[in-house]
Design a protein that fits this description.
about 240 residues, alpha+beta, 6-stranded antiparallel sheet, 5-stranded antiparallel sheet, 13 strands, about 30% helix, about 35% strand
Length: about 240
Amino acid sequence: MTGNLLYEGKAKRVYQVEGTPGQLVLAYKDDVTAFNGEKKDILPGKARLNNAISSHIFQELHERGIRTHFIKKLSATEQLVHQTDIVPLEVVVRNTAAGSIVRRLGIEPKSALTPPVIELFYKNDELGDPLMNDDHALLLCDVTHEDLNAMKAQALEVNRQLIDLFTASGLELVDFKLEFGRMAGSNNVVLADEISPDTCRLWDLETRENLDKDVYRQGTGDLLEVYEKLMTRLEASL
């Protein structure tokens, strides 16, 4: 099924699907990086876990009426998806103060952000994915006001659904990053990329233990053990 390699990023490879225009294969990698690639390792098993977790979450979002690029899980490390042209914009939704927003704005760590805060970041590794406003996005990301409004509305709806999903697993959704793409032959933007502990900050509801990539960033735990624990919780709740 897999055809030519189209793109390789830090976490995934993207392949054409032979004989099926408009579909791609996402192949997850065992690579783990942090701080824009300054810290990196290869952890055998990470690809399997991220693929399983992201596939579970996308399937659940589909069942809740949210349109995404996801079609199905193909193998332990691969997903079949609709081809999209990725918008070079990261949409971050924050429910609790953690990470860069604390450093940038002096907000008390772990304080609730009500309503949730949406931030936009320019997808550009060379520039370090800088924070941007709507005017910057209109200038640099080939989007319209309508596109931005649609992405923000979708991000908030995904947030509502993920809070429900993760709460059932005993988890607090602190914040997360979404990416969007235009479906082939269409101007409509849909949810794309992945939703996993690589892209979400998740804490145990009772202990506030990290169950995400922060354990790797901060050197506070075994990433594979943490991702296995998260997968077990999600499977139990679903």
